[in-house]
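Example for tutorial group B:
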């Protein structure tokens, strides 16, 4: 039987990627009590990091938002594993932190990270509303344009 969140993903036309393997010395998530901390995820398309480059230097805000949404979906892939395969166990999205590779004069990091935030609310409804930080950085792994990490509460 498909759960409520899986059905919502299908309704939105969204597919979760397979939970990837870390490329460095860390684990994809940790759990303490009912809180799950998901490591930062970069966006991928067809197995490669996409989008790459900097916001404010050739990467459009809308493209960055697509990337942030892809990061959120990658987080959900790991969260599904953490929840024993049942995303209906997600009680709340607590916090999202988004890192946006950008030029020094680019100031729309919050708009870019909205790609992840909007996905959280679209998927989880009121339980998807969260605290958030959007940070501009000079470079991200693999020249990714955006990276997103999150904290979630399970029931």
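The residue assignment follows.
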């Amino acid at each position: 039987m498909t759960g409520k969140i899986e059905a919502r993903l299908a309704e939105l036309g969204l597919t979760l990627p397979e939970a990837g393997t870390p490329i460095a010395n860390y684990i994809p998530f940790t759990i303490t009590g009912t809180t799950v901390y998901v490591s930062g995820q970069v966006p991928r398309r067809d197995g490669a990091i996409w989008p790459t480059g900097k916001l404010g230097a050739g990467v459009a805000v809308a493209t960055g938002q697509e990337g942030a949404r892809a990061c959120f979906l990658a987080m959900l892939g790991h969260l599904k594993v953490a929840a024993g395969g049942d995303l209906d166990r997600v009680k709340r999205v607590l916090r999202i932190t988004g890192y946006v590779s950008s030029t020094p004069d680019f100031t729309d990091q919050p708009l870019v990270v909205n790609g992840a935030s909007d996905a959280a609310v679209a998927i989880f409804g009121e339980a998807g509303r969260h605290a958030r930080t959007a940070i501009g950085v000079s470079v991200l792994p693999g020249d990714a344009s955006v990276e997103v990490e999150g904290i979630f509460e399970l029931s």
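The beta strands are 29-32, 35-41, 44-45, 48-49, 90-101, 131-137, 146-154. Compare this with the pattern of hydrophobic and polar residues in the output above.
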